[in-house]
């Protein structure tokens, strides 16, 4: 079983060692995330997609800007019932995020179903049975297993929080200041470490590094309307969807009308230049809103 591994490693482990129950048998090769690199291209529009990065972006979108998950590790010593309560309370308004967290945090596909949903629904009767079926050593200690899963869910949330922060930093750096990206960013706590059966330590490229390594940062963009991060096929796409794009178009048109620039009016070169300055300032003002309280 792979339940001692960090979530990302255990996913690989499940994928590659399906059906094996013979302890940790993960080599550094098998925990390395394989990441197909895009062909070098200057195309302004590219249909190549970084699937791992998009997975992270999708997950990040599930978390509302003002959501702060209570530090579940503080509950470690509490009875399971209190942890249930705290989780149910935390996830009340974020059912999709709750589902995602359980899916990412539970090592066994059979267990995911048991954790799925807003309420942390694993009954203490059901958990040992499921654990037994999966052959896990924690089958005899369902409380401990539950705590482990909760801890991992917390880890996943922390991962997404930091990922969101750095995606926003990278998105801005790549677009605004080409020289800025030459700086290195050190992101704490992302390295995946594994101590194997013989006590040797393996360091795996973590999920975030693997996902952003080699991708064109100019395509990691922040939607001008909803402020979510998205991957842009068209390199200067300002919005994540046609819906957001049309909202922005209408708002901008309204603003320009107020500024004395109604649509479909022929302008002199001078007036065009002035209008462009007004549009840029408007976009800049929108960009500087920061509902996430993050960079
Ligand atoms: Zn949007």
Concise account of the structure shown:
With 295 residues, the protein is mainly alpha-helical. The protein has two domains: 7-35 and 43-215, no CATH class; 241-287, no CATH class. The protein has eleven helices and four strands; from the N terminus they run ααααααααββαββαα.
General description of the model:
The structure is a single chain. The protein is mainly α and 295 residues long. The protein folds into 2 domains: 7-35 and 43-215, no CATH class; 241-287, no CATH class. The protein has 11 helices and 4 strands, in the order ααααααααββαββαα. The strands form 2 sheets. It has a two-stranded antiparallel ribbon. It has a two-stranded antiparallel ribbon with strand order 3-4. β3 and β4 (229-231) form a beta hairpin. α3 (51-61) packs across α8 (142-176) and α5 (95-105) packs across α8 (142-176). The two termini are 39 Å apart. The model is unreliable at 1-35 (pLDDT under 50). Zinc ion binds at residues 223, 225-226, 228, 239-241, 244.
């Amino acid at each position: 079983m792979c339940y001692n591994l960090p979530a990302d490693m255990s996913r690989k482990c499940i994928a590659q060692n399906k059906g094996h129950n013979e302890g940790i048998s993960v080599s550094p090769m098998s925990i390395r995330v394989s990441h197909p690199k895009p062909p070098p291209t200057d195309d302004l529009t590219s249909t190549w997609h970084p699937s791992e990065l998009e997975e992270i972006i999708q997950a990040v979108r599930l978390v509302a800007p003002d959501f702060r998950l209570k530090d579940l590790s503080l509950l470690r010593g509490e009875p399971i019932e209190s942890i249930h309560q705290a989780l149910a309370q935390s996830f009340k308004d974020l059912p999709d995020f709750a589902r995602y967290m359980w899916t990412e945090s539970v090592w066994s596909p059979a267990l995911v179903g048991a954790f799925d949903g807003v309420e942390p629904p694993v009954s203490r009767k059901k958990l040992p049975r499921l654990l037994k079926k999966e052959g896990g050593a924690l089958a005899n200690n369902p409380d401990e297993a539950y705590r482990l899963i909760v801890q991992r869910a917390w880890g996943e949330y922390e991962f997404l929080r930091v990922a969101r922060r750095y995606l926003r930093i990278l998105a801005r750096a790549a677009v605004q200041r080409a020289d800025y990206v030459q700086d290195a960013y050190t992101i704490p706590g992302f390295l995946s470490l594994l101590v194997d059966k013989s006590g040797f330590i393996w360091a795996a490229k973590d999920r975030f590094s693997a996902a952003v390594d080699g991708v064109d940062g100019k395509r990691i963009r922040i939607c001008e309307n909803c402020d979510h991060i998205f991957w842009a096929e068209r390199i200067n796409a300002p919005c994540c969807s046609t819906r957001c794009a049309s909202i922005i178009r209408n708002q901008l048109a309204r603003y320009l009308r107020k500024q004395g620039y109604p649509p479909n009016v022929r302008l002199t070169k001078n007036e065009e230049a002035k209008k462009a300055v007004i549009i840029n300032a408007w976009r800049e003002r929108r960009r500087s809103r920061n509902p996430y309280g993050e960079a």
